Amino acid sequence: MASRGLVCLVVGLLLVSRQLDLVAATTATTTKLDQGATAIGMNPGDSAAMLALKSSLGVTFTSWADGVSCQVKGESSSTLPTWAKVLCDATGSIVSIELKNDGLSGSIHADISKLTALTLLALQQQLFQADVSHFASNLFPLTGIKEIHLPNNWLYGSLPSNLLNLDSLTFLGVAYNYLTGSLPVASSQLSSMDLRANFFYDMPTLSLTWCDGHTNCFTSPSKCGMGGTTQRPAAECAICGSTNGQPPFCGGAETCAPDSSGVAAQGMPNLPASPSLVMACSGVAMDASDAAVLLALKASLGVTLTSWNPAALCTLEGKTLLPAQWGGIQCTAAGKVTSVALTRQGLKGSLHQDVSKLTTLTYLDLGYNLLQGRLDVFAAPLNFATTLKALFFHYNFFSGPIPSGFASLPLLTSLGLFSNYLTGTVPIPSKSLRVLDLGFNFLSGTFPKLPLVFCAGDNNCFLNASGCRTYGTVQRLASAACAMCGSDNGQGELCPGGTCAPLADAAVSAATVNSPNAPVLPMACKEYAAGAMEAVSAVALLNIKSALGVTHTSWNSASVCSFADSTTAVNDAWAGVHCSPSGEVVSLNLSASALSGRMHADISKLTALTSLDLRTNLLEGRLDAFVANFSALTSLKQAFFGFNWFTGPIPSALVTLASLTSLGVSHNYLYGAMPTPGAALKSIRVQGNWLSGTFPGTGNLSCSVTTNCLTSAGACNTTGSTQQRPAGSCSVCDSPDARAAAAASAASTSPGDSILICGGGTCAPNTTEPLASATPNSASAAVLPQFCVGVGLDAAQGNVLLSLKSALGVTFTDWSAATLPASTAMASTGDTASTGDTASTGGVLFDWSVAGSCTLEGQTPIPGSWTGVRCSPAGHIVSLDLRSCQLSGSLPSDISNLSTLTALHLASNLFFERLASFVAPLTPLASLNELNINFNWFYGSVPFTLMNMPALSALGISYNYLTGVLPKPGATVRALDTEFNFLSGEFPTATLSSCTCRMNCFLNTSACILKTSSADESTQRGDGCNICGSPTGQLPLCSDGSACSPDPSAYVASGVPNNASAPTLTLDCTPSLPTVNMLNFP
Question: How far is CA 409 from CA 11, 224, 353, 365, 608, in A?
């Protein structure tokens, strides 16, 4: 036993020696290379991974380079240059990396996972300072690694379970670090651990052959005591507010880590002989997405802080910043950035657009820097920073107006812009603002009276600053300072088309900051070709971008907007957009942009828009629906929609816009009579459509009207040819001639709608043609065939169909949510169904297109429309035909919301349910006129409520398994089909026009025979009525209260609808019979 103990002691000493000195001795053998070679070319994949690792760790070895050979493990040292401290196997794959005392820092690159043959990694006595969970995370995929050596660094945090459970790991060395907490359960493969000189307090009982854990905070040191059990004094273990090193640390929020300011002071790796650094609460790990934003900000502003790196911790809100943490940043306990303070950093450049992605940012301070240019351009990315509470840009060289976007920041309470070169008047700020400092600028006009608790407006060019008295009201007006950019006292518009700005290049080159005591830099007119877009307009354009499929990458919240009167091209400006100096959109040109879709309602927010050009795109649907929200565009002077596939009539609301002077809708598929134009309209182009009737006008309207179906150009002052389409070519859709349709329309109560075309639906081009897939409509292109495309399905009722689809197993692919309009869609006007159904504001979107349309009642089914559905002109469902669709299940309760439904056909399906339960959701349908559920497996009695629905006139319940006495039909019922059931008693007397009753168990059918010419209706089942305990099928059936029904297993096995030729299933008493849904059976 003594001899065995001696052997164990020797093994332990050898492992310690290996840990401290990493002696590269090995007794392993490798495959001999040809001709005794001792070096080999490195595997290219491994070489690429090592170069990535070199960069991330800061390795300075020149031998770490492509083309350098690799020393083969187990062979004598090569005379060729080889990768320093790296060994390969005979195939050139890396098996060992041993780096000691090389001054390395940084992180382990993810590409280390590509070193699949790696068995040993040593990174000891280096300068790594990071949370070990983050630092080691890229080692987790290394399933073949056997030894990991990380001693003598400044690693902190708790050892991750993934590290101790690597598939092949046998040795882990982390001695002389600052690791805390309890060790996780480890893999049975792990046999040796060196844990010395950390702050561990506990570990599970592990089956280790060797473990040294002295100088920790272990409560049970014997679990890892092969090198001694001496632990730290209690005072050393009282770290980060804990008791004896036991978590939680720092109140459970921050990380317990060494004060790494001592790292720089020592200038050497952590060694056993050096004093331990103080452990302190030192921040939280930053959220990865927020860290990415800050790194982008670092590049755009020129931040030089070395602490801005992903491995650094973030100071917790309200705590003191430690040197190694993200400088000037504070975070929540979850690592989300709340504060960015970068004063006196010599910053230049721009604010990266991703700053808006800091969704918890409340404080931003960029004061005392060298930032210059128009403030509204610089601050544009903040238009969407809705969490901001405090914003400071003081002591810089900003010029231009105060951004109007600041007024849209709902939580902003403090704004500091003092000591800049801002001009213009003060906009009304956010209602939440309480602190405003605008001192030492060149602002003009009258300072508005605001509900502020602190306000500074001194040393500006205000004519009256009495509304802002905190620092007095002294202005620059008495001096020559306000006589800048050619003005007498800084009032009014300065530098029309440009910006009054400081000659700041000299100041920046001198590395000075603007201050009240410094000489005022000379101000001059500087041409700025662009400015920031105001926030409301930017949001509106982003919504329009999504709705129409705008592909311009410059359409983002951080882009500037070119000024309308500028001739200078601006990089990265909103493409096709021009703004006023105040940032409002005045011009929008998206011609030839392959646009499609519906115009977003936010177009109404572009109230300063004067010009809109959407020519030569792929836009389709009703023009009146597309422009439904244009009524707010009271400044719009020009609107061009030519060379698209718009259909329907030209809307009166468009041609009567208050300021519209020029309208182009040429080369579309518009029809109907031209509405009377508004007084402002001076020019209109409508050529290449199917407009009809007489063109209205006063003689002052310049018109292009050729190639339509007009009977007369009227008083229109025409330009070019007035030739119309030849006779016969105006027969669009189901109208024999659009001219005749227009004449009929003119005599109707809705002139201009061409109500005879498509029965009140829409006649549209077939844009599924190959031509339409990529080519806009053009004058030279062949005319697409036109057909009736029905109406847009009401969104709410469409959702009922989707519910029905799910409940019954409807398989129609055109029953899709993708074709439903938004619930906020605008309504059409005046469409009335034959049932009296009328579209109301906020209801159906009348933007008809082929896909997803609803066929009008009485109209031929439209390819691509909702199969089996017919609608009123208001888009409300009036009939559903789902015969022979293999349906089963139960009707969903929301079918009762189809208030305009008049006909429902569910015959020849697989429904198996008590009839009373199945039809219960239908009883609220006061308009239901026709119900057909023939050829199914319904059982039970016919409910009185069904027979007496208020509008029901035709009911088909034949070829089912219905029993009991048939209730007397309601007064509205005229047709009743009941044959091939098991109904009993006498057929009720009713005012029917037609009925069937044969093959039941009726005792008397005379009331039915009177209504039919067939004598066969008197034929009943006879012996076939011996069901459910009754020899004649008369009540009572199933005295035990169970259901009289067919065998559900036979129903499932048949897999086909019940029909006249199918054998009749046997009825029997079945207790607690559930509804059978064929969707649940294979």
Answer: 68, 58, 16, 16, 22
Q: Where are the beta strands (DSSP E) in 206-336?
A: 210-212, 256-258, 279-281, 284-285, 313-316, 329-331
Contacts of 176 (CB under 8 A, 6+ apart): 151, 152, 153, 196, 197, 198, 270, 271, 272
pLDDT band at 475 (very low <50, low <70, confident <90, very high): confident
Report the candidate in 285, 301, 482, 281 with the shortest Cα–Cα distance to residue 378: 301
Nearest CA to 42 among 80, 93, 114, 86?
Answer: 93
Kindly give, in sequence order, each residue whose CB lies less than 8 Å from that of residue 129, ignoring residues fewer than 6 positions away.
105, 153, 154, 155, 156, 257, 258, 260, 263, 311, 324
What is the identity of the amino acid at 291? A
Could you give the C-alpha distances from 463 to 110, 188, 531, in angstroms and in order? 63, 82, 26
- How close are the terminal C-alpha atoms of the chain, in Å? 70
Residues composing the chain:
1082
Contact 941, 968 (CB under 8 A): no
**279 touches 257 (CB < 8 A):** yes
Nearest Cα residue to 213 out of 186, 226, 178 = 226
Distance CA 805, CA 494 (A): 65
The answer to whether the Cα torsion of 51, 54, 55, 61 is positive or negative is negative
Q: Which pLDDT belongs to residue 1061?
A: 63
Nearest Cα neighbor of 249 from 280, 203, 278 is: 280
Q: What is the pLDDT of residue 904?
A: 97
Helix (H) or strand (E) holding 743: helix 738-746
Q: Which amino acid is at 251?
A: G
List pLDDT tens digits, range 43-98.
Answer: 999 999 999 999 999 999 999 999 999 999 999 988 889 999 999 999 999 999 99
User: Which residues, 6 or more positions from 755, have their beta carbon under 8 angstroms from its beta carbon?
Assistant: 741, 744, 745, 748
- What the block records as the tokens of 114 is 């590509």
Check if the beta carbon of residue 1066 is closer than 8 Å to that of residue 1052: no
Maximum Cα–Cα distance across the chain: 123
Q: Nearest CA to 899 among 871, 930, 878? A: 878
CA distance 458 to 112: 60
Q: Taking the mean position of all CA atoms in its chain, how far away is CA 467?
A: 44
**In this structure, are residues 637 and 610 in contact, taking their beta carbons and an 8 Å threshold?**
yes
pTM comes to: 0.48
Asked if omega into 248 is within 30° of 0 (cis), the reply is yes
Measuring CA to CA, how many Å separate 32 from each of 43, 75, 76, 906? 18, 8, 11, 81
Determine contact, residues 126/99, Cβ cutoff 8 Å: yes
Give the span between the Cα atoms of 548 and 599, in whole angstroms. Answer: 7
Q: How far is CA 197 from CA 125, 342, 619, 741, 1082, in A?
A: 14, 38, 72, 95, 65
The pair of three-digit structure tokens given for residue 224, joined into one six-digit string: 């890892």
Which of 481, 564, 492 has its CA nearest to residue 516? 481
Burial class (CB in 10 A: 0-12, 13-18, 19+), 727: exposed
Q: 3-state secondary structure string, 883-952?
A: CCCCCCCCCCHHHHHCCCCCEEECCCCCCECEHHHHHHHHCCCCCCCEEECCCCCCEECCCHHHHCCCCC
H or E segment to which residue 147 belongs: strand 147-149
Give the DSSP letter string of 150-195.
--SS--EEPPPHHHHT-TT--EEE--SSEEEEEPPP--TT--EEE-
d(CA 585, CA 593): 19
Six token digits for residue 502: 């400081």
Residue 336 and residue 285: Cα distance in Å, rounded? 9
How many other CB atoms sit within 10 Å of the CB of residue 1062? Answer: 12
Indicate the DSSP class of residue 998.
-
Q: CB pairs under 8 A, 24+ apart, for 445-449?
A: 445/491
Tell me: pLDDT of 262 over 80: no
